[in-house]
Design goal:
Helix content: 40-55%
Number of helices: 10
Shape: globular
CATH topology of the largest domain: Rossmann fold
Distance between the termini: 51 Å
Radius of gyration: 20 Å
Number of strands: 10
CATH class of the largest domain: Alpha Beta
Order of helices and strands: HEHEEHHEHEHEEEHEHEHH
Strand order of the largest sheet: 1-10-9-2-5-8-7-6
CATH architecture of the largest domain: 3-Layer(aba) Sandwich
Length: 295
């Protein structure tokens, strides 16, 4: 089924439900998932939900990497990380393998930059915020990547501080009982350190307290992240609307491992020099890419 047809089916179902009653109701056709290459679908879904619910009862959650923003180069991107992770599992002695890829990716985040996944990405976020719904970001990035993450959101004119649930400044770093690594919630950006997005969302909502959102819309480019949200929503009996974002799928598919490996060899000495001069406050590269087990 095409993206356009899926979108029409999804929206039509929402409209039929909205027209079934003259009063506001929580009987929404929840737990839908739709694919789209256009973030504007989020606006359409929220407008439909607002026919049944007050704006403040709706929460929209954006992923960041390859959903709102994408790295300007393959180095440090999700596809680069996934490629490295796959090599680690299949051939840990592959000469292209970067040791401690999280630390290396952190250095690339500091040195690199990001662009919007589509030209009007920031405008979509602003329009949702103007509609009065809750809007926040949730990323698999950990708290150690907060500085370059917030820098790139700011540079691309995306700010979630005023429209995210909870206190405006967030909670800083915290670690609930179900988390194995610390979380960071600051200025409407939730940094999960690779942990279950659904479970960690519930932890955040419970920490905030009060009534849970009556409708949650999530936008993410990873199937497993959407599945995590859906699992938690089903367990908590929350109304969830999932958008599988495909706006950068062509770029992800064009990832060139040979070029990425060559680019890493070119950039690594420069990163090492920066670390040697300025210290490792912003990133800490491994001392070598050599794996002693493979020597």
């Amino acid at each position: 089924m095409s993206v356009r047809l899926l979108t029409l089916v999804f929206t039509a179902a929402l409209l039929l439900s909205a027209c079934s009653s003259q009063t506001k109701t929580t009987n929404l056709p929840a737990n839908y998932r739709v694919s789209s290459s256009d973030l504007n679908l989020t606006l359409e879904i929220v407008r439909t939900l607002e026919q049944q619910l007050a704006s403040e009862d709706i929460l929209v959650i954006f992923d960041i990497d390859n959903t709102l923003l994408a790295m300007n180069t393959d180095l440090g991107s999700d596809q680069w990380y996934d490629w490295q992770s796959s090599m680690q599992k299949t051939n840990k002695c592959d000469p292209r393998l970067v040791r401690n890829r999280l630390a290396s990716q952190g250095a690339l985040f500091v040195a690199g930059s990001m662009r919007p996944t589509q030209k009007d990405a920031a405008e979509v976020v602003k329009k949702l915020q103007q509609q009065g719904v809750g809007v926040m970001a949730a990323t698999a990035r950990g708290w150690t990547f907060a500085l370059p993450t917030m820098r790139e959101l700011h540079r691309n004119k995306m700010n979630f501080r005023a429209t995210a649930p909870g206190p405006a400044a967030g909670y800083g770093e915290f670690q609930p009982a179900t988390a194995i690594r610390p979380l960071l919630y600051t200025d409407g950006v939730y940094m999960l350190a690779g942990q279950h997005k659904g479970d960690m969302l519930i932890e955040l909502l419970n920490k905030i307290g009060g009534d849970l959102p009556k409708a949650i819309v999530v936008i993410d480019d990873k199937d497993y992240n959407l599945a995590a949200y859906e699992e938690a929503a089903k367990r908590q009996q929350l109304n969830l609307y999932s958008i599988y974002y495909t706006g950068v799928s062509d770029w992800v598919a064009s990832f060139n491992p040979k070029k990425a490996a060559a680019d890493w060899q070119r950039v690594r000495p420069a990163l090492e020099q920066l670390q040697a001069v300025f210290g490792n406050d912003n990133f800490k590269l491994p001392t070598t890419d050599n794996n002693t087990e493979c020597e």
